[in-house]
Amino acid sequence: MNAWVLLLRGINVGGNHALRMSDLRALLATLGVRNVASYIQSGNLVFTGVIDARNFGEIVEDEIEAQRGFRPRAMVFSRENFGEIVAAYPWPDAFGDPTSGHIWFLAARPTAPDMDELGKLAASSERFRLTDSAFYLHAPDGIGRSKLAEKVERHVGVAATARNLNTSLKLREMLEGLGEV
């Protein structure tokens, strides 16, 4: 068995697409995975099991749509892949204020990102980097003020879901806590 992280995009935001984590943990258990644990209310789960990551995300999306009437994006990453993405965050000074650092986990490799537009949207205090699996942003003036943050997905050109460094580090810790499976 392997350890996995599941990131749901767009649930429990502003009172929309409500989904209790206890319901989501129960749903995953019915799909045959084990050791399911969640972190905060925004769709962050870790679990163990033998799955096909791409198909598992679609199965979760299908089940939520059938049960709740909306379809959030579900992205699944292996412990190793998730850990590598988090460890590659390029600005160590952001860890002093981990709410200023964000990672967009990408559903696919970007093929035609609009780097010029991303650069135009970035504030002078912001730093960003795009890789094959993530978009990294350091927004020391706050994510809520960032014009870049609100348009990342559009200009990267692939589906993505963002987590701040606090959440990313906690999920990595939870994955490590699952031990060797």
How would the blueprint of this fold be written?
Elements: E1 2-9, H1 21-30, E2 34-39, E3 44-49, H2 53-68, E4 73-78, H3 79-87, E5 101-106, H4 115-121, E6 127-130, E7 134-138, H5 152-156, E8 160-164, H6 165-177
Helix pairs in contact: 3-6
Structural class given helices, strands, pairing?
alpha+beta
Largest sheet: 4 strands, antiparallel
Supply the CATH architecture of the largest domain: 2-Layer Sandwich
Q: Estimate the global geometry from the Cα principal axes.
A: globular
Low-pLDDT windows of residues:
none
Mean pLDDT: 92
Structural Rg = 16 Å
What is the ordering of alpha helices and beta strands?
Answer: EHEEHEHEHEEHEH
Strand order of the largest sheet: 2-3-1-4
Kindly report the CATH topology of the largest domain: Alpha-Beta Plaits
CATH class of the largest domain: Alpha Beta
* Total beta strands: 8
Strand content: 25-35%
The helix fraction, in percent, is 25-40%
Number of domains: 2
| Termini gap | 5 Å
Number of helices: 6
Protein name: DUF1697 domain-containing protein
Organism: Sinisalibacter aestuarii
Pfam family, one: DUF1697
